[in-house]
Specification:
The chain has 184 residues and is mainly beta. The protein has one helix at 82-85, and strands at residues 3-5, 13-17, 23-26, 38-45, 54-60, 65-71, 74-78, 90-96, 105-110, 121-125, 131-134, 149-152, 161-166, 169-173, 179-181. The longest helix is centred in the middle third of the chain and has 4 residues, at 82-85.
Length: 184
């Protein structure tokens, strides 16, 4: 397993695992040089089901970036679609297949740190390499101040559940995207 670390003040870091001899710093990969903004988070997954890992980079104060893995450590920057042109102030994101269609969907949390006043975003994977933006009415239209998100399967019927911090509340949604729990 290789190691990737975001760096909000410059280039990101990628280290290739050399096995027992340690790690080697990678310097010529596009995911390292995300000059569009301050990279605040990354999430890895195979969104196109080609067996090669892809990465989404959340960016505060700039444009988020989606890279499609093409094999042998190479990545292609995706430049079209709502995932990369919505222009939100993302803080972090997480992949999961919320609707059990075998394609990873993406939830992106935003943060008001940079004064964006934006709500979180949820993207449904259309299964053809594109995504559709889904409005989550259950969250309302208030600006979010989220910093973390996580998915898990809390049941035995393989439905995804995700938890995230919304201000001072922790919110949980079931695989049908209905609110399951919202403690005050």
């Amino acid at each position: 397993m290789d190691l990737f670390a975001v760096n909000p003040s410059g280039s990101n870091y990628l280290y290739k695992n050399l096995g027992e001899t340690g790690f080697e710093k990678v310097t010529n990969c596009p995911i390292i040089h995300n000059s569009s903004s301050f990279t605040s988070g990354s999430t890895w997954g195979d969104y196109d089901n080609d067996g090669i890992i892809d990465v989404f980079l959340a960016a505060q104060g700039g444009t988020d970036v989606l890279f499609r893995g093409t094999g042998n450590g190479n990545f292609q920057k995706i430049t079209e679609g709502p995932l990369v042109i919505d222009g939100y102030n993302a803080y972090n994101a997480a992949w999961a297949d919320y609707d059990n269609d075998s394609y990873l969907d993406l939830y992106v949390v935003t943060n008001t740190f940079m004064g964006s006043g934006q709500v979180d975003f949820f993207y449904h994977n259309n299964g053809d390499g594109t995504f559709s933006s889904i409005k989550l009415d259950m969250l309302g239209n208030e600006a979010s101040d989220n910093t973390a998100i996580g998915w898990c399967d809390l049941t035995t019927i393989a439905t995804s559940t995700f938890w995230f911090r919304h201000g001072i509340r922790t919110i949980c949604f079931t695989g049908t995207m209905e609110m399951a729990h919202s403690p005050e």
